[in-house]
Give the backbone structure.
Amino acid sequence: MYLNKKVAQYQKASKQYSLLGADPHQVIMILMNAAVDSMAIAKGCIERKDFEGKSNAINKAIQVIGGLQDGLNLDVDNGIGQNLNSLYDYMIRRLTEASLEMSIEKVNEVAQLIIPIRDAWRQIPEADKQKGFQLIDQYNQQKRQQANAS
């Protein structure tokens, strides 16, 4: 038990450290991977009828998806943010239902929704990532200027 606790503490610290040096693209990848991993754990817990483990894993997946949702820039009027916001809402609802119903099918449904998004995100070319970082910086500068002008 002591060794498992130390391993868990190391894994948590390692994840936190990897987020510190990550750019926005990497942070989203880490979050999406964490959501997929948590759903896989939840499915195993459902199969074993491990109610506490299932609740913990699904709650983590919901929190991660909520974090992805919170990171959306809904000020940009391109429809993508709004579509992702709606999709994340749906995923959270389905995971909540999956938890209540002990439904592997609903967990699978959400995994099948987020995995293609994660895989597409992974395939973004480096030049496009850099352009995105520049747009984020410009947007943040505009927000700071507006706040200072107020």
